[in-house]
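Recap quiz, item 2
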Amino acid sequence: MSLKLLRQGLGRRPSRMWHDRPLKDHYRVVIIGGGAHGLACAYYLARDHGITDVAVLDKSYIGSGGSGRNTAILRANYLTPEGVHFYDASIKLYEELSRDLDFNVMFSQRGHLTLAHNDGSVRTMRRRAEVNRIEGVDSRLVFPDELARICPQLDLSPAPRFPILAALYHPPGGIIRHDAVVWGYARGADRRGVDIHQYTEVTGIDTANGAVTGVRTQRGIVSADIVLSATAGWSSNVTAMVGLELPLDTIPLQACVTEPLKPFLDVVIVSGSLHVYVSQSDRGELVMGASVDPFASYSMAGSLDFMESLAGHVLELFPFLSKARILRQWAGLCEMPPDYSPLMGVTPVDGFLLDAGWGTYGFKASPICGKAMAELIATRRTPDLIYPFRLSRFAEFDQVGEKGAASVGH
Amino acid sequence: MSGRRIEPQPGETIDRGCTVRFRFDGRQLEGYAGDTIASALTAAGVQVLSRSFKYHRPRGLLCGAGHCPNCLVQVGDEPNVRACRRPIEEGMEVAPQNVWPSLQYDAMALTELVSRFLPVGFYYKTFIRPAAMWPLYEHVLRNAAGLGAIDETTTVGGDFDKEYLHADVAVIGGGPAGLSAAVAAVEQGARVLLLDENKTLGGHLRFSGDGDDGRTRVGAWRESLGKGGATVLTQTAVIGHYQNHWLSAVRGNRLYKIRAAGVVVATGAFEIPMVFDGNDRPGVLLGTAVQRLIRLHGVAPGRRAVVVTASDAGWDVATDLVQAGVEVAAIADERPGQHADQRIDTTETQVLHGHTIGAAHGRSAVRAAVLVPVDGDGPWHTVDCDLIAVSTGWNPSLELAYLAGARSRYDEDLGEMRLQAVPDGLFLAGRVAGPGGLEDDVRQGDDAGHAAAEWARGGSKETGTTAAGQRTPAAPTGGRSSALVAAPPTGHDKRFVCYCEDVTDVDINTALLEGYDRIELLKRYSTLGMGPCQGRMCGLQGIRHCARDTDTSVADTGRTTARPPVTPVSLGALAGQRMEPVYLSALHDWHVQQGASMMIAGPWLRPEHYGDPVAEVGAVRQTVGLIDVSPLGKLQLTGPGVATMLERLYVNQWQDLRRGRVRYGMMCNDEGIVLDDGVCARLSEEEWYVSTTSTGAAGALEWMEWWRQSGWGEGVHITDMTETFAAFNLAGPRSREVLQQLTERDLSKAKFPYMRARRAEVAGVPCLLLRIGFTGELSYEIHCPAGFGRYLWETLVEAGGSFGLRPFGVEAQRVLRLEKAHLIVGQDTDALSDPIAADAAWAVRLDKGDFLGKRALTRVSSEGPRQRLVGFRTGRRVDALREGLQIVDAERRIIGWISSCRHSPTLDETLGLCWLPADMAAREQSTFTVFVAGRLEAAQVHHGPFYDPEGARLRS
Amino acid sequence: MLRIDCPNCGARNAAEFRYAGEYNPRPTQADDDEWIRYLYLRRNRMGVQVEWWYHRSGCGTWFLVERDRRSNEISRIMRWQPGVAETGSLSA
C-alpha cells in the first residue's frame, strides 16, 4: 500500500490536485482546451523546458471534451510509417505515465485485435502488420486457430453474416483510464506552476501584423506570445477567430456501456466490417462504440440507430451477450480530416499553433502530441516526428494516407 | 406460506389461488402468480438479496421501483435482473450476485475492514511502482469487478423483435395525470398511444391514497380510452426520446420505435433515500416500497417498524403498516411542531417531531433505529425494530423530459428539481412537473392532453400550454422533500450516497477536498451515479453534498447530463431479429448446388471458386469458362446530354465514341483520386449502358446523380439496372463457338469485333452483349433480365459442355486479370491514388474540356507521380510473396508495397502489382526486395501485361 | 431520429438519407488558393449551414438542407438550381 493512502487512511487531509488561481492579464503561452492534449502540452512545457508561465483555459471542466468521451483504447498499429512512428512514441510515453505523473492511469496492455471479415480486410491487416513489424511495433496477422486461444469467446464459426477470417493482433494495445490521464497531467502541470482555468471560455483571439497577441475570455483579456488551440471537435470555431478555415468536418462519435458484468473479455476487439469495438473495463462494464455518425453535427444527443446497429453487430461477434443491458450511451465530437491524419504545428498566423484534426484517434496521441507541441513552442522548430502532419500538407499535395485503415480506427 | 403474507388486499395483483415454485440461492421457495421475485422473497422472510459493489455489504430490497441496485439478482443466465420488477415464474432459478463463496459469508466483505485505506479513487494512488507488478494488481482489481455473470455458452438469446408505432399524441405514464391527458387527447380526436411500465394502470393510485376511489377513477379513464380507440401498452418502459419526438420503448423482448407529433410526459416522481449511518442495511425500505409490498403483493415487510419522514407521506405509510398488522414502534417526523394524524394511535406509537434517523443498527437485518433530533440538540432514541420505512424525499422523473431537451433548476423551497423550459411538442403533467394533489394532477393532465392534441393538429403550443411555472406548488399532500442534506452523523456506520458504487458521504467530501469540485468531475472521480441506477438514487444527494461543501447553491451546482436509456435495455432487444442484409445473384442457388465456395464481396456473396481455381484458370485460357458478374453496377443513361456529362465525370473521352462501341472508363474526384472504373457502351446516339465496380456500384450511382442533379445533367436520365439485370462473362478461345450455337446474331470477328456492343437474342432471351473481358481472352459479357438469369446460365453451361466449359469464380478471375496486369480499383488503388500513378495515364485525356480531376491530374502529369503502380515478376514460384507485404530499400526502409500477387498457373511464376518510387518503377527489370518475415525476397519490375502483351487473344 | 422533408417524397426518417457535406460549389474560375479552399477547406461551424443530402433509400433526389449543427434543427429544404444556396429561393 502506498504511503499516500496510509496517511490518508490515518486521517490526513488529502492534498488538492489543482488550484483555482486568478486569471493573469499576460501569459507567455495560452493553451485553449483543457483536455489531455492541452494539459499534456502544459505539463511537458513545464517539465522539459522550464516554461511555466502558461495558462490552460477550458470553457467547461477539464477533460469535458473528447478526453472524457472516448473509449480509452490505445494502440500503435497504424498503416503509414509516419503514423506508426508517432503513435508508437505515444504508447511508450503512456507505458511510463503512471510513474512519471505518480498517478495510476491504469494502462492495461491486454492486447488489441482488429478482425478481418473479408479478403480485402485480410490484405489491409497484413499490410499494417508488415509496416508495424518493420517499424518495430509488435503486431501480426493471426488466423482462427490462434484467435480461438486469444479470445475464445468470439464466434469463429461460419454462421455469422460476416464470418471472421483473420485478425491483426497487437499485444501492446489496450485500454487506459482516460480521466486519470487528464487529472494526472493537470496535477503535474499545476504543481509546476501552470495555471488551469476551468469555465473560462475564449471568445476571441487578437492578432496584430499577422501575429497572435492574446485571447479574449468572458473573464477578461489575456495577452500571450503563443496561443495553442487544442480544442479538437471544435477547432474550426476557434481558428475562425483568426480567419482560418480548416480541412475538417465535425461528426459525432457515439459509445455506450453495459451494466457491470463479471470479467470475461480480456482483449480489445475491433471489427471494421461490422463497425464496432468492444472492451471490458476494470469495473466490469463492456465499453462499446461504432464508427462516426452518418452526418456532421455538434449535437451530442446520441441516436437510437446507433444503439440498434451496434447491438446487432456485437451479437454477431458474441451471441451470448443478448441479455447484457446497455446502461448509458453518449457521444463525443470528432473532426475528420480528408486523410484521417491530424493537423499539428504552425499556421499562417505567427505564434498561433494548431493541435487539431484528431478524428477518432486523438486520445491515443495525447502524451506525444503534448510533448511535440511543447518542443515546438520552446524551440520554435517543428519536430521531425510531427512534420508529416503539418497543416500545409494539403496545399502541398502531400497527405498522410491513414484513411484506408481507419474506417473504424480504434 | 410464511407469516409475512397478510390478508388479501383490495387492489392486490397476486393470484392467491396459483402457487409458483422457484429457487433462490439453492433454496426451494414459493410465491403466488403476480409476485415479483422481491415480493415473494420478502414474503418468505428472505431479506438479503445480493452484496454490494465495493465492500460486499449485504443488501436487500430498498426502492421497490426498479431503480436502485440493491435487489439485482441473477436469473438463470441473465445477469443484473431487478428482483422488484421481475415476476416469478415456475421453476425460476434465482441467485444472488457478487457473492463469494456465499451470500451469508462473503470473503470480499473483508475489504470493509481496511476501507479507511481504500478511500475514493484509491486505485489512482497506489499500484504505481514497481511497474512490473501492475498487471498482477490489475488482475486482482478486475476479478473483484462486475456484478452479474454472463454465460458464455448461451447462444440463443430469445426471440427479440421490433415494432413501429405512430401517434398524434404519445402519453408516457399511466397514472392519474397521464390517464386524464390521454382521455383529453382522445376526446380531441387524436390518435393516442398510452405507455406505462407497470402491469396495471393507475400509477401511485395502485398503492397509495384511497384505493377504492382510485380504482374507480382508473376504470372510468380506461373505459374512455377504449371507446376512443386509444392504444394502451402496459409493461412498456419508454427508454429514450430522440430528435423530432422519436421514442424508444421496451416491452419484454420487443423494442418499439415510436414517432409522435406531440408527447405528454406524465412520469411522476420517485422516492429517494436518505443519507444516514447504515442506510443500506437490509430492512431499510423506502416508504413506497413498503406500500407496494402491502397493497400490491399482500406482504408485510416486517413485524415492528420505525417510520422516518418529512411530510404526511410517512404517516400514510405508517397507516398502511398498522392496517397490515405491523407494529409501528415510532415515527420520526422531520417537521417541528405537532403533526397529529388521527389514523395513528399515539399510545402505541412513539411520535418524535423534529427528529430524523441517525443510524440503522444491524448487519444482515435491521435490529434497531437510532432517532436523533434534526438540529443535533437533544437525546437520541434507540428503537428496536426489524423495518425502517424512509419517506423523506422525492425526485420528479424528469429523465425523458431532459432527453427531449427540457431544462430544470433546483428549487430550494421544494427541495427538488423544477422544470424551467420544455421544447416544442412536449407537455408535462402531474407530479413530474412539481408537487400537487390528485385533483391538480387530473386537471393538469387534461390541459396537457388538450394542448398536445392541438399541437398534433398543427396548432400552437401556447393554447392551453402546460408549462412548469403554472403548476401550483401549494400544499403538497404527497411528498415534500426533506430539507436535510444528510442526517446528523452518529458515527456508527458508513453513510451511503450512491448504493451502486458504494460511495459514502466521506468519499464525496474527500473528492471535493482533492479538487474534484465540479459536479461532473465529482461524478467521474467518485463514480457517484455511474452504476446501474444511473444516479436516480444518488444524483440529487450528490449535488446537495457538492453544493454544501463548496459553498455554492444547489441550483448553481447544476446536474450531470441525462443520457439514454432511461432504464437499462438488453442488447437483444436493441438488435431485434438481427437481419443483416445480403445481396444474392439470380444464380446464387445454382452456385451453392455446384459446391461453390462463397465469399463476401461488399454486400454480395459471390463464388470464390468451385473447388479448383487453377483448373478454372486453365479452362479460360485453353477452352472456355463462365463467370457470374451480376454484382457489377449497371446503369442505363439516356438523353441528348449523356456524352457531355460523361466527358465531365470520366477522365476518358466520349464524344467521339461511335454507336455500338464500348470504351473503358475511369472516374476521379477533383482531387484526382480514382473513384471507380468500368465500361461505357454507346448503344445508340442517346442511349448508353455503363458498368461500375461491384462494391462501388451504389457510390458510383450516387456520384453520377449528384452531378446530374446539380447542373451537369441537362438532358440526361439515369436508370439503375444493377439488380434488374444478371450478367455473365463467357471467356476463352472457344467462347464464340459456344455462344454462336444459341444466337442468330453473327458473332464473327468481322461482324462483332473487340470493344463492340450488340443487342441479341440468346436462347430466346433478349440480351446485351459486350465484347469485353477482364481475362485477356476472347470473351462476351452477357447482360439479360435477372429473371432469365438462371435459365440462360444453365443453357450456356449445357451448350459449353462439349467444349469443356467450366464455371469460374472470383479467384480465377483475379489470377486471369493479374496475368494481364489489370488493376482493381480499391485493391490496387487507395484513397490517395490517382490514375497517372496507378499506371492508367493512357485513359486520361488532359486535352479535352473541363472534367472532374483535370486540374489535379494536369499537375501530377507535369510534376510526375511520387509513387507508381507497376507490375513485377519473379521468374519462379514464391509462395511467401503475399498481398500487403512491404518493399524495402537497403536500409530496410519502406519504399513500397505489394497490392496484388498470385502464382500464375499459365506462366508458372509468381507475379503481381506493386507500388514503387516512380523512378524505380520506370526502370523495366530493375530489382527490388520484399520484406518477408525477416527475410528479403527479390522481384523485378515488369511493364505491361505478363500474358499476351500484344492483346492478340482478346481481339481474336 | 431526425426527420427530413425530402422535396420529392415528404417527411422521412434521416436513416433514408445520406449526408454529403457542406454545400461547396465547384468554382469555374479559381486561382490556386481558391482551388485548395474548394478541395479541402470547410466552414464546419457551430451554427446554421447549407449542406447536401441524398434520398438514398427513396427517390434518389439530391437536395440542399439548411440545418443548425448545434441542435440539428432544419430551417430550409431546397432543390438545387443555379445560385440557390446564395439566393435562398425555395423550391415549390
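Chain C has a mean pLDDT of 91.
Chain C touches chain A through 23 residues (CB under 8 Å).
End of item.
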